[in-house]
Each structure stands twice: as C-alpha cells, then as structure tokens.
Amino acid sequence: MSNSNAPDSPAAVIEVRNGSFSYGETPALRNVSFQVARGDFVGIVGPNGSGKSTLLKIVDGILTPQEGESLLLGKPVRSYGRKYLAREVALVPQSFTLDFDFAVHEVVDMGRYARKGLETHGLSTDELLEKLEIDALKDRRFPELSGGEKQMVVLAQALAQEPSLLLLDEPAAHLDVSYQLRLFDWLKKLNNEGLTIVCVLHDLNLALLYFESMLVFSEGKLFASGPTEEVLTPETIEAVYGVHAYLHRHAGRTFLTFSPRSRPTRKEKVHLLCGGGTGAHLMRELVDLGYSVSVGVVNAMDTDEVTARELGLPIAAEAPFTPITDEAYRENMSLVEKADLVLLTDVPLGAGNIRNLDSLREAAVMGKDVWVLDGVAERDFTGLATGILEGLVDVRYLRDTQTMLVDLGERV
Amino acid sequence: MKSQKSNKNTILIGAAVIALFIFAALLSLALGPANISVGKVFKYLFQGRISGDASSTIFWQIRMPRVLLALLVGAALALAGTILQGLFLNPLTDPYVTGVSSGAAFGATLTFFFNMPAIPWLSLLAIVGGFTTLIFVYSIARTRGVLNVYRLLLGGVTMSYLFFALVSILMIKSGRDLHAVVYWLLGSFSGRGWTEVKIALMIIPFLIVPFFFADELNILLQGEERALELGVEVERVKRVLFFVSATVTALAVSVSGIIGFVGLVIPHICRLIIGPDHRKVLFLSIFMGASLMTLSDLLARVAFAPSEIPVGVVTIFFGAPVFLYLLRRKTA
User: Fold this and answer.
1) Chain A contacts of B229, Cβ < 8 Å?
2) Chain segment B132-153, per-residue pLDDT in tens
C-alpha cells in the first residue's frame, strides 16, 4: 500500500491528532491522539461513557471531530466519500436492528453495496458464510436468528465490504461463551491474514487473552496505550474503573478478577490461619467486604499463599513443604497482634502446621476474638490439637465459612 | 436451488399483477351506467374515437380519462407510501404525513371559496399548496445538511392539522357549495377529464426514479447510520426520495383529492406477497396501487348507480379492515 501522503507515519491506517468531540454540551472525547498501524490488532477498553464508541464513529467518518483531525490512510476522513470509505473501513455495530424479512444471504450481500460495479477479489457470499461456519443459515430469515447468529451475519456483512480496516463495537456483548470465543478466534485469524482490527470490548479477560495492544479510555481521554500486558495492570484498572483488580496466573493463562472498592467503614483487621486452599475463598470474600486481611503461616506456592499474594495481603510464609520455623512463627504472631479477629479455617493439621494452633492459643490469651471452624479433631493428624485448645473458653466454634461471614457481618 | 425457486416465484407474481392491472383497466373501461362490451372496448381502443357513436364518445371522453387517472393516482400513492414507510422505518406512514396533501387541500378549497373555475385553478392551486408545504416542511426538518426524518414526520403532521383548521374556516365561511368541497376532500375521480390526465401524466417519470434507489432503500431498512457505514450517501438518497414521493403525492392529490388508505395499505400487502426487497416491492406496489384504485373507483361508480360515492370512501371501507387485520397479525 503506497501512502505517500503521510511520510512521518507511512504505516498508519488510523491517525487521530488531538481529536475532541462533544454531543451538544457533553464532551465525549477530549484531545485524543493515537495511531493504528497496518496489521495491528488493537483492543479499546474503558468504562461506559468513556468515549469508545464515539471514537469508532470518528474513525469511520460518521462523526467529525470538532477539534483536531482524524486521518485514514494519511488523509482526513471527511475528504472521502461514503462509498470509498465503505470499501476501506467496515464497522460491526454494537446493536443491529433489521425487522424486515430478508434472507441471511441478502443481508450479507448488502455489504457489497459499495463495491457494486467494481472488480472484486474477495470471497463470494457462499464462501464467506462457509468460512465463518454459518453456511447453514444462508436461506434463513434474518429476524428469526438468535442474537449470536445475527452477530456472525453482521460480521459477514462487514467482511463482504472487503475492508482493509475492521472496527467492532462490543461485538461480544450479546454472545454466549461459545460464540464469543468463535468470534475472537475468527478475528485473530482475519488479522493473521492481514486485516487491521480495532475492537471495543468490555471483557478485560478477553482483551488479555486475544489482543496484542490496548487503548484504555477514561472520561473521554486516552488514559494508557501499549502492549496489553503492560497496559492492563491492576493500577490502571483501579484508576479507570474504580475497582480493585487482581492479576492471576493459572492454568497457563493470565486473568483478572475484580473486587469493589473497599468501603471505608470497615476498619477491622482479620488474620486467617489457613493453608491448602482452605482460606482462599474466605480471603477474597473478606477483602471484597472491605476488611483488612492478613494470612499466616502458609507455605509458599500453596494455593492460599498464591491467592494472598495476588490480593496483595500481608503474609507470614514458610518455604514449601517445610514445617513452621521459629522465624515464620514470629512473623505470624506479629500479624496476629495487629488483628482484631483471628480465624482458623478447616485446614488439615499435621506436623508441619500444628504450630498455627499455638498462635491461635496465644491470640486467645491476648484477648483477641478467636473463631474456629467446627471439627478440629477430625482434621487433626497429630493428636495434639485437642490438648492445645483445651481450657480456652472464649473460642467461638462455627459450622461453616458461610456462617462465619454472616456472623462477621453482624459483629459490632 | 432455493433462490432459483424464489426467482420463479417473483416472475409468477409479477405476471399475475400485470394481468390484474390489465383486467382492472379493461373492466373499468367496460362497466358503468352505460355498459360497453369487451369487444367494443377493444374496437374503440384500436380505432380511436368514432364520430356519431355515442358510446364511443362516452368511452373516450368520460371513461378513458377516468380510468387513466385512477391508474396513475393509485400507482403514485402506493409508491409514495412504500418509499416513505421505508425512509421513516415506520409502518404507519402514508403519503399524507408529509403535509403535502393538506397543503394541496387548502389550495383546492381556496378555489371553491373564491368560486374560481375548476379548470385550471383547482389543480393548479392544489399543486402550489402542496409544493409550498413540501418546501416549508423540508426546510424545518433540515439542519446542517442533515434531513431529520422525525422532524419531517412531526412537521408534516403539524402542517396537516394547521391546514385542516384553515380548510374548516373556509368551508364554514363560504356557506355555499360545501358539498363540492367535502366531495373533493374525500377524493374522487368523478367529472375529471383529459386536463387532469395531462397533469397526472407528469407522475410517470417520477415513478421510475425510485428504482435507481432500490438497493439504497433496502440498506436504509437497517437504519441511517448503518447505511452510512455500508457506503450509502444517505442524505442524497433521502433528499431525492422525499422529493419524489412528495411530488407524486402533490400531483395525485391535485387531480383526485385526498384518497385515504391506498398509500398506507398497499405497501404492506405488497411486502406480504413478495417480501421486503424494494427492487420487487416498488414494482409490485405501482401495479397493485393502480389496479386496486381502479377497481375501487369502479365500485364507487356502480355500487349505488346511478348515484356515485367518493372513491375515498370505498378505499377506506376496504382499507381499514385490511389494515386492522395486518396490525393484529404484526403484534401477534
């Protein structure tokens, strides 16, 4: 593709320079600048109302920025006619209504409107439908299709335009997980074949999974941009969405989970004695409820240790497969001392971690609230537990984690 | 396979509607207070006017212009309805929502009020009234180069009310010939001649224009924004089609008055028969509109012969139940 008009960025398909746009008095985009190069696969994320859809409409020439410039292939978008634009840029819209009884192949053919009378090198409608694995829908009436099927047909319509740039506005919003993955797999494939793709999406985990680079929008401004793993950090997400985000690596994938921003009313500190994954769920619930949580003594790489680390909690940790040493015990006790409440989960007790019971006893003696999940004797493989707990009058025994959480909520 | 079958269907339907069209025209030429046999109809058609033959005079001076008018007006209203329903994406739209017909009605009522000779003033003032309204509504609906269809719709409806208020005042004030005004307003082909036919013939070129925009009309069914994305110069298409439908409506109203329900119901019937594709619907609605209007006028002439009822009454009597049925079907 020759592109002599933009010597400073010959590869840029899209270039927005200081673009601003307002709907009446309401600003939607403020001074946004970025470029998308040929062959890029870019995701756009940001909270509702952050200007993502407006941006796509500006790139596609539906809207013109009131300030700044939007260039396509080095020329202002508004300098092109609609027909020419439709041959270069296709958009898969957020919502699509067509209540009239057209057959699927007719709807797809509408995508060819701008290429009428021109030589075409692309796929026929039949081939296109086959490629997207929806050839069975060919003669079906469009209004009778399911949401997912419709979305695939609209994608086919957009591809029938044979564009060099494909824009998508939350294409997965109405799709079940199977269609979602199919759609993004297809986009990946199309991108490998040379199509430049820019996609607005809400699901940050899909973004992590599929996209090479990201633009993050917040309140009409470009907040961050760059390679996905560098951009979608918990810090960025917290700043933009106002929620806590935690990055997990599991089963060979990186993914995010989220918690609401802590309520400032909860000041209590809870220390969890756990291990082997018995505390992970409780940890998460407590963090989401806004408690300050600490964890100990757990072995490094243990599920509870990994979870606590991902949640950014203070941990007293011991080396893997190592019984609790004095050093770890002291570290744990310093966390216990700061806590208002000490919880013991249903972690099995063996020679390695029985000293956690000693710290529980110490906590009780200090006058901390101490809560324990029922059935300690059954989980005890050392025979020492009953003896250690003996004589502790203020320990509260609870049936299960759920009761624990409920009682915790009622605790004044 | 399947598309071949549907092509065959389309051709069959097309042939059927053309047959209906010819049948309606011939039947209307033949029947009336003085019946003319089909054989004679053909004879007159081929030989032209035969001097001294009274029924030949009736055929050429009364019946032929009337049938031609009904065919043209029916085609115009059905086509305008089809276009506007597509443009507005609103199934309840008819050619009269643009306010053009009310403007025409006002112009026509003026001629009754001032007792002007019907030829040429009635049609002339009706056309002037129609076009003035068209330009007014259009300029209200257009801002910064964008034609807002909702404003077009609401502006048109508002203008309709305004003109009907004015027409009412004129009717009350005139005190005479109320019967003629009411008759005209309800729509009729009674007493029309070749002068009106000459005006109505101007409809024909406008009937052809929309066929060049059939693809665009189809794409516009997905909404204006989607149409832009697919490469349609939406503003140009809307402008052309709005002017075409308003023009044929003004011309039709100027020669026939306000004949209701044709422009509303025929497009729906056509879509039911042949599907939503405008390449087919436009064609079908022209011929269906022409045929059904002509048959309605025939009924208006012969149902209570020797007296006539306005054809607008007939179309309402047939159109209203059909439309209510369609409405039930749609919501069910």
Assistant:
1) 60, 62, 86, 90-91, 93
2) 998 999 899 988 888 888 888 8
